[in-house]
Amino acid sequence: MQTLILLAVAGLLAQLVDGSLGMAYGVTLTTLLLVIGTNPAAASATVHLAEIGTTLASGISHWKLGNVDWKVVRRIAIPGAIGSFAGATFLSRLSTEAAEPVMSGLLLALGIYILVRFTAWGTPRGNLGKPLRKRFLTPVGLFGGFVDATGGGGWGPVGTPALLASGRIEPRKVIGSIDTSEFIVAVAASLGFLYGLGHENINFAWVGVLLLGGVIAAPIAAWIVRHVPPRVLGSLVGGVIVFTNMRTILRSEWIDASGGAQTAAYIALALVWIGAVAWSVRAHLADRRLERELAAGTPPDAEEPVEARE
């Protein structure tokens, strides 16, 4: 019972992050599952089975609000499904000893991306432009799907910035299309894990409580979006993911760092993390000041940070 309660809390926390940032549900939840000692392949399988429910609900919501570009969904979901099925079967065939540092390495990279992305540039943005083509969406889908399955998450961190950077689709439709297509990716990954692991190696009670935690968190996440700056939250969450997975890698057989080296790495990371959060808070306050000045018709201060004027 204690484990189920902890998993429900983990699902709630992961959905809070995803609902506030538009990404990182799988990355956050898989990191938490690894911390409590879950097998890497089983952790990713559990996350993706739970995501079938959360992504379906999210996709329906985005569809009703007109946030979905169905051409983009069709062109990215199929290669994404292929990549996620391949990633799931690949991870299922690795031993636990080999899989843990592989997954932690991918999660570490995604955590660094989230930390840098939200600290340096804030909330992702984009501009309306020309239609996205298959030759662009296919490799993004294949890579995003493979990383999503092998890393326990990554569809949003890979797909969302790629589509936004193209400048060819509205930001709201980027998030809506990525969230909707993730349902197909989650189904394909789940089938891959069921094929590679077998259903007897997956605890469906865990899947249920994770889904329950996500459902409970949905309205709370909406409140967080209004009261906690996404830029600051992204820096906080990115640091947690980096710190947790760096700990796993430093203790793995690949590196086997000494106690002194581990301590030095943790201190260096803590300093970087504190600086990143402080920078995000400063940039957020500068943005707020600029918004108030523009609303009042006052010219922006010439000494405002560049990112506050964008």
How would you summarize this macromolecular structure in one to three sentences?
The protein has twelve helices and no strands. It has helices spanning 2-21, 25-35, 40-64, 70-92, 96-120, 134-150, 155-166, 171-197, 204-227, 230-250, 259-296, 306-309.
Task: Offer a few descriptive terms.
310 residues; mainly alpha; 80% helix; 0% strand; TSUP/Inactive_protease-like; membrane
Radius of gyration: 19 Å
Whole-Å distance between the termini? 49 Å
Estimate what percentage of residues fall within beta strands: under 5%
The coarse silhouette is globular
Structural class: mainly alpha
Question: How are the elements arranged and paired?
Answer:
Elements: H1 2-21, H2 25-35, H3 40-64, H4 70-92, H5 96-120, H6 134-150, H7 155-166, H8 171-197, H9 204-227, H10 230-250, H11 259-296, H12 306-309
Structure overview:
This protein has 310 residues and is mostly helical. The protein is 80% helix and 0% strand. The chain has helices at residues 2-21, 25-35, 40-64, 70-92, 96-120, 134-150, 155-166, 171-197, 204-227, 230-250, 259-296, 306-309. Helix 5 (96-120) packs antiparallel against helix 10. The protein is globular. InterPro entries: TM_pro_TauE-like (IPR002781), TSUP/Inactive_protease-like (IPR051598). The chain crosses the membrane at residues 72-91, 103-123, 204-225, 232-250, 262-281. It is found in: Cell membrane; Membrane. Its main location: membrane.
